[in-house]
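> forwarded from #structure-qc
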């Protein structure tokens, strides 16, 4: 039975989408009901529109405690048709309105920005390429803050500034891989009142060569790392070292082109495999008894604090493990065959919202898949998840 609290929270979900334009004209099923249905079903384990319809029919009485659903549950064809016609930018804005209530922005929060391809959204028969999204992830909270579509990975450079404009970033640390290491992106982050930690690779060949030169001189003089940490487990020992240099007066070429730049850093990672692992022997990583070393260079508007720069760089990869990997494993995103219109993009937003809500919850001991099963079995738990926002 629905409680007053859950009712109020779910109404706020529907209210968030009141300004969303209905792409249809005189249709039977209200758009708000369709959106609430798809969100609730996705949280509860539905990964296709067929599954959404089945969820709706099995939980129709419960859904009618949230919204009227006077005409019942739409067919899966209707659900698919609506989602591929919804304006993706409006849909994104509505989701930001809702998730803003859950986002507890704190100074120093690392916001990782990275791209992900929706592999199943392409169509080899017609030559249509898969959709590619650039998204922002609050690493500490495990919350998707926003996303923008890019026309393939090479156009992330154009999508990132548009995404930055839509976010509230004051006091945060924005981390981006090499694709986003651009002067205009650094300037946009600073204008938003945030700091940046950008990885430098060969797309900034002159900058990388200059940073390498500065650190080679330091290492030749025998400078010890400014910060070192070690992790071990499952037969692997990983040692990370960080050296930092304050940019002012250190001869970094074209440093005046990088807004607010204060430091550069060298992060060296050594991975030692102590135990045999047949699967790893066939990969490019370290094999048993050997050590693999990787060096990464970053440019930052933060002071040359090695511990802070190392931690920010490490947290950046939470977007891969905490968001992208879980979307594929727990939500089957790469297997989704939604291809037409804006359907893949819009359904991707719903998945990210559902994952964020599940990660926020610590009321039960279990992973994402376990929580989705619990939501499917227990409407009280589903109401609890909805009530988090």
């Amino acid at each position: 039975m629905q409680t007053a609290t859950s009712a109020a929270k779910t109404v706020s979900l529907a209210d968030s989408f009141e300004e969303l334009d209905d792409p249809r004209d005189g249709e039977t099923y209200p758009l708000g009901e369709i959106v609430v249905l798809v969100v609730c079903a996705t949280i509860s384990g539905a990964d296709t529109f067929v599954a959404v319809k089945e969820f709706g029919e099995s939980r129709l009485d419960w859904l009618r405690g949230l919204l009227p659903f006077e005409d019942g549950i739409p067919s899966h064809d209707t659900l698919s048709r609506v989602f591929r016609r919804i304006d993706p930018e409006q849909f994104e804005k509505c989701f930001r309105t809702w998730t803003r209530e859950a986002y507890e922005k704190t100074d120093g929060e690392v916001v990782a920005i990275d791209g992900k391809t929706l592999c199943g959204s392409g169509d080899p028969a017609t030559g249509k390429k898969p959709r590619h999204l650039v998204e922002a992830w609050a690493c500490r909270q495990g919350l998707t803050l926003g996303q923008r579509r890019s026309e393939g990975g090479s156009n992330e450079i154009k999508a990132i500034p548009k995404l930055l404009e839509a976010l509230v970033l004051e006091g945060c640390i924005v981390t981006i891989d090499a694709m986003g290491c651009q002067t205009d992106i650094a300037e946009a982050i600073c204008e938003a009142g945030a700091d940046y930690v950008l990885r430098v690779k060969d797309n900034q060949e002159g900058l990388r060569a200059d940073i390498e030169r500065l650190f080679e001189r330091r290492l030749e003089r025998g400078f010890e790392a400014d910060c070192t940490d070690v992790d071990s487990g499952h037969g692997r020992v990983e040692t990370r070292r960080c050296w930092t240099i304050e940019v002012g007066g250190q001869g970094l070429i074209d440093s005046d082109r990088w807004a607010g730049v204060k430091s550069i850093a060298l992060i060296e990672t050594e991975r030692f495999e102590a135990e045999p692992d047949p699967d790893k022997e066939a990969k490019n990583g370290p094999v048993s008894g050997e050590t693999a070393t990787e060096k990464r260079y970053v440019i930052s508007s933060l002071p040359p604090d090695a511990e802070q720069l190392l931690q920010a760089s490490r947290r950046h990869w939470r977007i891969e493990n905490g968001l992208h990997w879980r979307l594929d494993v727990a939500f089957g995103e790469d297997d989704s065959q939604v291809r037409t219109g804006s359907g893949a993009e819009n359904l991707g937003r719903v998945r990210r919202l559902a994952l964020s809500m599940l990660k926020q919850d610590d009321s039960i001991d279990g992973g994402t898949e376990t929580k989705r099963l619990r939501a499917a079995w227990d409407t009280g738990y589903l109401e609890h998840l909805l009530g988090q926002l």
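QC bot note: The radius of gyration is 23 Å. Residues 56 and 73 are 6 Å apart (CA to CA).
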